[in-house]
Give the backbone structure.
Amino acid sequence: MASNTTRRRKAAPRTRAALSSERILAAAMQLALDSPEALSLSRLGAALDADPTAVYRHFHSRDDLLRAMADAVHEEVDAELEQIPEDAPWREALERHLWTIRRCFLRYPALAREYCHRLSGGVHEARGVRRFADVLLREGLAPEDAVSITRASAVLVFGAIAMDAGSIMLSEAQQREELGRLVRVYRPVSPEWALTVDVDADVVTDLDTQFALALEVMLDGIGLRVDGPSHDA
Protein backbone atom coordinates (compact mmCIF):
# COMPACT_ATOMS: atom_id res chain seq x y z
CA MET A 1 0.00 0.00 0.00
CA ALA A 2 1.46 3.37 -1.01
CA SER A 3 2.35 5.68 1.82
CA ASN A 4 1.11 9.27 2.10
CA THR A 5 4.63 10.41 1.18
CA THR A 6 4.56 8.36 -2.03
CA ARG A 7 1.13 9.73 -2.98
CA ARG A 8 2.34 13.29 -2.42
CA ARG A 9 5.32 12.64 -4.69
CA LYS A 10 3.06 11.28 -7.44
CA ALA A 11 0.62 14.18 -7.26
CA ALA A 12 0.75 16.38 -10.33
CA PRO A 13 2.57 19.63 -9.62
CA ARG A 14 0.49 22.79 -9.67
CA THR A 15 1.11 24.75 -12.83
CA ARG A 16 1.05 28.52 -13.08
CA ALA A 17 0.55 30.57 -16.20
CA ALA A 18 3.82 32.01 -17.43
CA LEU A 19 4.36 35.64 -16.58
CA SER A 20 4.88 38.19 -19.30
CA SER A 21 4.99 41.97 -19.34
CA GLU A 22 1.61 41.98 -21.10
CA ARG A 23 -0.01 39.75 -18.47
CA ILE A 24 1.47 41.77 -15.60
CA LEU A 25 0.32 45.03 -17.15
CA ALA A 26 -3.20 43.69 -17.74
CA ALA A 27 -3.46 42.53 -14.12
CA ALA A 28 -2.15 45.85 -12.82
CA MET A 29 -4.67 47.78 -14.93
CA GLN A 30 -7.51 45.59 -13.64
CA LEU A 31 -6.44 46.20 -10.06
CA ALA A 32 -6.32 49.95 -10.71
CA LEU A 33 -9.80 49.78 -12.24
CA ASP A 34 -11.32 47.75 -9.41
CA SER A 35 -9.73 49.43 -6.39
CA PRO A 36 -8.97 52.99 -5.27
CA GLU A 37 -5.93 51.73 -3.39
CA ALA A 38 -2.44 52.53 -4.64
CA LEU A 39 -0.89 49.65 -6.53
CA SER A 40 1.30 47.39 -4.41
CA LEU A 41 3.43 44.56 -5.70
CA SER A 42 2.03 42.25 -3.02
CA ARG A 43 -1.53 42.75 -4.32
CA LEU A 44 -0.31 42.39 -7.88
CA GLY A 45 1.51 39.17 -7.02
CA ALA A 46 -1.65 37.77 -5.43
CA ALA A 47 -3.67 38.67 -8.52
CA LEU A 48 -1.11 36.93 -10.71
CA ASP A 49 -0.71 33.96 -8.35
CA ALA A 50 3.02 34.65 -8.44
CA ASP A 51 5.81 35.84 -6.22
CA PRO A 52 5.68 39.66 -6.26
CA THR A 53 9.41 39.85 -6.96
CA ALA A 54 8.83 38.05 -10.27
CA VAL A 55 7.46 41.34 -11.61
CA TYR A 56 11.01 42.69 -11.61
CA ARG A 57 11.98 40.25 -14.35
CA HIS A 58 9.74 42.22 -16.69
CA PHE A 59 9.69 45.71 -15.17
CA HIS A 60 12.82 47.21 -13.61
CA SER A 61 10.85 48.90 -10.82
CA ARG A 62 7.39 49.75 -9.60
CA ASP A 63 7.88 53.15 -11.23
CA ASP A 64 8.61 51.44 -14.54
CA LEU A 65 5.32 49.55 -14.23
CA LEU A 66 3.40 52.71 -13.36
CA ARG A 67 4.84 54.41 -16.43
CA ALA A 68 3.65 51.53 -18.60
CA MET A 69 0.21 51.75 -16.97
CA ALA A 70 0.02 55.48 -17.69
CA ASP A 71 0.82 54.91 -21.35
CA ALA A 72 -1.82 52.16 -21.43
CA VAL A 73 -4.36 54.80 -20.39
CA HIS A 74 -3.01 57.06 -23.14
CA GLU A 75 -3.69 54.16 -25.51
CA GLU A 76 -7.33 54.19 -24.37
CA VAL A 77 -7.40 57.94 -24.94
CA ASP A 78 -5.89 57.48 -28.40
CA ALA A 79 -8.55 54.94 -29.36
CA GLU A 80 -11.39 57.25 -28.28
CA LEU A 81 -9.87 60.23 -30.07
CA GLU A 82 -10.19 58.35 -33.34
CA GLN A 83 -13.90 59.20 -33.16
CA ILE A 84 -13.17 62.93 -33.60
CA PRO A 85 -13.42 63.86 -37.30
CA GLU A 86 -10.23 65.30 -38.76
CA ASP A 87 -12.20 68.27 -40.10
CA ALA A 88 -13.82 69.07 -36.74
CA PRO A 89 -13.56 72.76 -35.75
CA TRP A 90 -10.44 73.39 -33.68
CA ARG A 91 -12.36 74.27 -30.52
CA GLU A 92 -14.52 71.15 -30.67
CA ALA A 93 -11.48 68.96 -31.37
CA LEU A 94 -9.45 70.33 -28.45
CA GLU A 95 -12.39 70.31 -26.05
CA ARG A 96 -13.22 66.68 -26.83
CA HIS A 97 -9.54 65.77 -26.59
CA LEU A 98 -9.17 67.19 -23.08
CA TRP A 99 -12.45 65.75 -21.81
CA THR A 100 -11.38 62.35 -23.15
CA ILE A 101 -8.05 62.49 -21.31
CA ARG A 102 -9.83 63.38 -18.08
CA ARG A 103 -12.50 60.69 -18.44
CA CYS A 104 -10.02 57.92 -19.22
CA PHE A 105 -7.58 58.72 -16.42
CA LEU A 106 -10.31 59.12 -13.80
CA ARG A 107 -11.30 55.50 -14.43
CA TYR A 108 -8.09 54.74 -12.52
CA PRO A 109 -8.10 57.32 -9.70
CA ALA A 110 -5.21 55.86 -7.70
CA LEU A 111 -2.98 55.78 -10.79
CA ALA A 112 -4.14 59.27 -11.77
CA ARG A 113 -3.34 60.72 -8.37
CA GLU A 114 0.09 59.11 -8.31
CA TYR A 115 1.23 59.66 -11.87
CA CYS A 116 -0.57 62.55 -13.55
CA HIS A 117 2.18 65.01 -12.66
CA ARG A 118 4.65 62.99 -14.75
CA LEU A 119 5.21 61.93 -18.36
CA SER A 120 5.01 58.31 -19.35
CA GLY A 121 7.29 58.89 -22.32
CA GLY A 122 5.38 56.21 -24.20
CA VAL A 123 4.37 56.06 -27.82
CA HIS A 124 0.67 56.64 -27.11
CA GLU A 125 1.29 59.74 -25.04
CA ALA A 126 3.54 61.11 -27.79
CA ARG A 127 0.82 60.41 -30.36
CA GLY A 128 -1.71 62.34 -28.29
CA VAL A 129 0.63 65.32 -27.98
CA ARG A 130 1.14 65.34 -31.73
CA ARG A 131 -2.60 65.07 -32.40
CA PHE A 132 -3.36 68.04 -30.14
CA ALA A 133 -0.56 70.19 -31.57
CA ASP A 134 -1.57 69.33 -35.14
CA VAL A 135 -4.99 70.90 -34.56
CA LEU A 136 -3.27 74.16 -33.66
CA LEU A 137 -0.80 73.92 -36.53
CA ARG A 138 -3.68 73.53 -38.99
CA GLU A 139 -5.04 76.83 -37.69
CA GLY A 140 -1.81 78.54 -38.70
CA LEU A 141 -0.04 78.81 -35.36
CA ALA A 142 3.74 78.62 -35.36
CA PRO A 143 5.17 75.32 -34.10
CA GLU A 144 6.60 76.92 -30.95
CA ASP A 145 3.20 78.43 -30.13
CA ALA A 146 1.46 75.12 -30.79
CA VAL A 147 3.87 73.37 -28.41
CA SER A 148 3.44 76.04 -25.72
CA ILE A 149 -0.35 75.83 -25.86
CA THR A 150 -0.27 72.03 -25.88
CA ARG A 151 1.90 72.01 -22.75
CA ALA A 152 -0.30 74.59 -21.01
CA SER A 153 -3.37 72.50 -21.85
CA ALA A 154 -1.66 69.44 -20.38
CA VAL A 155 -0.97 71.36 -17.17
CA LEU A 156 -4.64 72.26 -16.94
CA VAL A 157 -6.07 68.81 -17.63
CA PHE A 158 -3.57 66.70 -15.68
CA GLY A 159 -3.54 69.10 -12.74
CA ALA A 160 -7.33 68.88 -12.64
CA ILE A 161 -7.21 65.08 -12.93
CA ALA A 162 -4.79 64.74 -10.02
CA MET A 163 -6.94 67.00 -7.85
CA ASP A 164 -10.18 65.34 -8.92
CA ALA A 165 -8.77 61.86 -8.33
CA GLY A 166 -7.84 62.82 -4.79
CA SER A 167 -11.36 64.09 -4.15
CA ILE A 168 -12.99 61.01 -5.66
CA MET A 169 -10.96 58.74 -3.37
CA LEU A 170 -12.24 60.49 -0.24
CA SER A 171 -15.14 59.00 1.70
CA GLU A 172 -18.56 60.57 1.20
CA ALA A 173 -18.31 62.22 4.61
CA GLN A 174 -14.92 63.70 3.74
CA GLN A 175 -16.26 64.94 0.40
CA ARG A 176 -19.09 66.77 2.16
CA GLU A 177 -16.61 68.27 4.62
CA GLU A 178 -14.47 69.53 1.75
CA LEU A 179 -17.45 71.16 0.04
CA GLY A 180 -18.39 72.76 3.34
CA ARG A 181 -14.89 74.22 3.71
CA LEU A 182 -15.06 75.46 0.14
CA VAL A 183 -18.26 77.35 0.87
CA ARG A 184 -16.77 78.93 3.99
CA VAL A 185 -13.67 80.08 2.12
CA TYR A 186 -15.53 81.61 -0.83
CA ARG A 187 -18.62 82.97 0.97
CA PRO A 188 -16.96 86.29 1.92
CA VAL A 189 -16.34 86.98 -1.77
CA SER A 190 -19.89 86.22 -2.87
CA PRO A 191 -22.59 85.15 -0.40
CA GLU A 192 -24.91 84.72 -3.38
CA TRP A 193 -22.55 82.19 -4.96
CA ALA A 194 -22.27 80.28 -1.68
CA LEU A 195 -26.04 79.78 -1.67
CA THR A 196 -25.81 77.93 -4.98
CA VAL A 197 -23.50 75.20 -3.63
CA ASP A 198 -25.17 72.01 -2.44
CA VAL A 199 -22.77 70.48 0.09
CA ASP A 200 -24.71 67.21 -0.06
CA ALA A 201 -24.39 66.93 -3.85
CA ASP A 202 -22.29 64.37 -5.66
CA VAL A 203 -18.73 65.70 -5.62
CA VAL A 204 -18.11 64.38 -9.15
CA THR A 205 -20.86 66.65 -10.49
CA ASP A 206 -19.20 69.66 -8.89
CA LEU A 207 -15.79 68.65 -10.25
CA ASP A 208 -17.26 68.27 -13.75
CA THR A 209 -18.75 71.76 -13.50
CA GLN A 210 -15.49 73.33 -12.41
CA PHE A 211 -13.49 71.56 -15.10
CA ALA A 212 -15.97 72.66 -17.76
CA LEU A 213 -15.55 76.28 -16.68
CA ALA A 214 -11.75 76.07 -16.55
CA LEU A 215 -11.76 74.50 -20.00
CA GLU A 216 -14.07 77.18 -21.38
CA VAL A 217 -11.81 79.94 -20.08
CA MET A 218 -8.72 78.28 -21.55
CA LEU A 219 -10.33 77.68 -24.94
CA ASP A 220 -11.44 81.31 -25.01
CA GLY A 221 -7.81 82.28 -24.50
CA ILE A 222 -6.61 79.92 -27.22
CA GLY A 223 -9.24 81.45 -29.49
CA LEU A 224 -7.61 84.85 -29.10
CA ARG A 225 -4.38 83.31 -30.43
CA VAL A 226 -6.07 81.39 -33.23
CA ASP A 227 -8.28 84.25 -34.42
CA GLY A 228 -5.80 87.06 -33.78
CA PRO A 229 -3.46 88.55 -36.37
CA SER A 230 -0.22 87.80 -34.51
CA HIS A 231 0.30 84.26 -35.84
CA ASP A 232 -0.22 85.40 -39.43
CA ALA A 233 2.44 88.06 -39.26
Remarks:
- The mean pLDDT is 88.
- The two ends are 96 Å apart (CA to CA).
- The domain at 19-169+202-232 is CATH 1.10.357.10 (Tetracycline Repressor; domain 2).
- The chain has eleven helices and no strands.
